[in-house]
Amino acid sequence: MLTIDNIKMIQPTVVKQIQSLYSRERIVHAYLFEGDKGTGKSQAAQFFIQLLLCEQVVNNEPCGQCRQCRLVTSGNHTNVHHIYPDGATIKIEQVRNLMKEMKMVGMEQGHKFYVIHHADKMNIAAANMLLKFLEEPVGKVTAILLTEQYQAILPTILSRCQHFKFAALPREVIIEQLIEQQITKSMASTVSLLTNNLDEAITLSTNEQFVQMRKTVLHLIGTIQQNVQESLLYIQEAWIPVYKEREDFERALDLLLFAYRDIVALKADIEGTVVAFPDKQAEFENIALNSTYERLSKQMQAILKAREQLHRNMNRSLLMEQLMLNLQEGYAFV
Fold first, then answer.
1. What pLDDT was estimated at residue 103?
2. Whole-number Å distance between alpha carbons of 65 and 111
3. CATH number of 207-329
4. pTM for the whole thing?
């Protein structure tokens, strides 16, 4: 999981922008943190708040040890308030109560902050009340709006916010963070192709069904190289009965496609290519050595076609039987 300690590595541009605002004392009343889920928006908001409240800032970074920093970290700072959706939306009562809190004299002196998580979930009444508050800010109060869909926020609110764009996490960062969580490099390499959300990647890596799915796909590739009858039998035993949900079925096909992409990359001897299945490199190199580019291309086309047929609700057993035959021969669907 992302923490305030590694947000500088995850979002270096955003952190530098925040530090620049602090050093130049250019703090405004409202900020919008926009980016995909898992890109560190909440952690960056905490970094920002700690930086402005910290008693011992060093090199434009909060110390993390002073009373103010510890209160923020523990979630007990009386000058820091968070709003989350109540059900499907953020309601006017939530914003009204927040505004009252902002106007009250608290135990802690100085700057006040309110962080609105999933700000795009505000209903119209709540958004209008927030807009009124932004138009008439009270003292040293700063709003930080977090969102994955800024287009759903009122343009009049957006115009009053300084916008920070959070970049998607690079694959290399996902892999590194997963390895720090004691996940093998092989599994991290595979999962990092499926999501750039670190929390989702960690969940997927430790999900027993996904771990087994990965093993199933790799075993299937081995049977394809040997005997088509064995492949057909294996999919009836280990694939069709297990992957009943379309999402799981499609994910397994994605893993199969990643494997063939690895094989093509190895055949092309692409320097620096990070493969999805590094633990199978020797086996894939052997397959690459005994395959032509034409055959590998047709095999990948067959997998892509199978994905397409899945969305057209083709009988899944028939779909996989045809795919096995096509992968065995290297011909695509006709």
1. 75
2. 19
3. 1.20.272.10
4. 0.74
- Eight-state DSSP code of residue 179: H
- CB of 13 within 8 A of CB of 55? no
Alpha-carbon distance of 264 to 83, in angstroms, equals 49
- Rounded distance between C-alpha atoms, residue 181 and residue 262, angstroms: 25
In terms of DSSP H, where are the helices of 120-240? 124-135, 155-158, 171-180, 185-191, 198-205, 208-224, 228-238
CA count, 13 A, side-chain hemisphere, 58: 6
Backbone angles phi, psi at 146, to 5 degrees: -110, 135
For the chain, give the percent of residues with pLDDT over 90.
71
Residues of the chain with pLDDT under 70: 1-4, 105-108, 270-274, 330-334
What pLDDT score does 261 carry? 94
Distance CA 54, CA 1 (A): 24
Residue 268 to residue 313: CA distance in whole angstroms: 35
Query: Which residue ranges make up each domain of the chain?
Result: 7-168, 207-329
Among residues 126, 192, 229, 165, the alpha carbon closest in space to that of 36 is found at: 165
Tell whether domain 7-168 is in CATH 3.30.930.20: no
Residue 60 and residue 16: Cα distance in Å, rounded? 9
Give the pair of three-digit tokens for residue 327: 């992968």
Beta bridge partners, 122, equal 90
pLDDT tens digits for range 68-108: 999 999 999 999 999 999 999 999 999 999 888 877 755 56
How far, in Å, CA of 300 to CA of 310, rounded? 15
